[in-house]
Amino acid sequence: MTTPNKFLAAAVQAAPVFYDLDATVAKGVGLIEQAAKAGCKLIAFGEAWLPGYPFHIWLGPPAWGMQYVQRYHANSVDLNGPAFGLIKAAARRCGIHVAMGYSERDDGSLYLGQALIDDTGMVLNARRKLKPTHVERSVFGEGYGVDLAVTDTALGRIGALCCWEHLQPLSKYALYGQGEQIHIAAWPAFSLYKGAAFALGAEVNMAASRVYAVEGQGFVIAATNVVDAHALEVLGQGPDAPPFLQLGGGSAMIFGPDGRELAEFLPDTAEGLVIAEIDLGQITLAKAVADPAGHYSKPESTRMILDKRVRPPIEILEDWAIEEGAIEGEV
Questions:
Q1: Is 47:226 a contact under the CB 8 Å cutoff?
Q2: Domain holding 252: CATH number?
Q3: Quick check: is 318 catalytic?
Q4: Catalytic: 163?
Q5: 174: left (phi over 0), alpha (psi -120 to 50) or beta
Q6: Is 194 a catalytic residue?
């Protein structure tokens, strides 16, 4: 497979039509078409862009949040369903790779997912967030080591993580070690608890995206969502509600393998595409100085294990029994 040396990529900064899958898919198709018309070969969307990040779990007690459970489940994505099929069709029609973030519906359970779709509309990889963050665990199930994957594409080797997976050192290293060249960093809107929770803001989380680029010597396409007036209405955040969620929160950017910004930030309330050139040749220069999974590593001192098996609970219990037996000398 011949890898092009240079191409344009787009990071989405836009508001989903919160908790409305069909309307958000239609808006997403429009953004895909816009990126293709601009000459982009890759477009990346934020965390749970379909059908919007479930901010309700952060805004009140669980009993209050139950009013959104059925709606959010019904508007989450069936990867074999017609709504997601429209995203694949848009990728094929526009000849563009699409990295889409979504809430995945699998029977009665939900998972925070990311899919990489190629320019023929084929899903090359669909992953799940390994460990949902804090109250996300009241909504979403967990992924496995198999979800830490880097995929060969016509554009290069592409990997992806969601939100605070970028604060998990071993998960990051798992992707570095697979020769990742282009990383999709999917983020929600940085509109939650402004002024009260600095760690949830754009400054910290875009710093994490920047560090990922310079640490792994690759390109990072950091896509973010936006909270708009419709979202506040859907979530009951009127003038009498506590100011837990505010308008804006966009901070999309594309970082080069030396950590530099490759485009201009949009205003945090603005919607649009952040577009920059990906030049894979720059990776060679960056890795000549420090390759964390190559010449700059010390595997005889520190190393990690990536378990890519998909194991249901019964298999985990069987593994524990074997391990305990081995300790006791029974096997």
A1: no
A2: 3.60.110.10
A3: no
A4: yes
A5: alpha
A6: no
pLDDT at 304: 87
Mean pLDDT value of segment 315-330: 43
Set 27, 47, 215, 287: catalytic member: 47
Catalytic residue selected from 27, 88, 129, 172: 129
Pick from 319, 285, 265: nearest CA to 214: 285
What is the tally of structural domains in the chain? 1
| β-strand pairing of 219-225 with 253-255 | antiparallel
Reduced DSSP (H G I as helix, E B as strand, rest coil) percent helix, strand, coil of the chain, to 5: 35, 25, 40
Q: Alpha-carbon distance 80 to 29, whole Å?
A: 17
pLDDT digits (tens, 9 = 90+) for 287-310: 999 998 899 998 889 888 898 887
DSSP β-ladder status, 219-225 and 6-14:
parallel
> Do 191 and 249 contact (CB within 8 A), yes or no?
yes
User: Active-site residue among 136, 162, 163, 180?
Assistant: 163
Q: What is the pTM of this model?
A: 0.92
323 found inside a domain: no
Per the structure, the complete domain to which residue 200 belongs is given by 6-293
Token pair, residue 17, equals 């039509």
> How far apart are alpha carbons 218 and 212 in whole angstroms?
8
> Does any domain span residue 56?
yes
Q: Is residue 131 assigned to a domain?
A: yes
The single-letter code of the amino acid at 206 is M
Cβ neighbors of 251 (< 8 A, separation 6 or more) are 13, 187, 190, 202, 205, 206, 222, 224, 265, 268
At 247-296, the pLDDT tens digits run 999 999 999 999 999 999 999 999 999 999 999 999 999 999 999 889 99
Residue 38 domain-assigned (yes or no): yes
Beta strands 182-186 and 157-162 are parallel
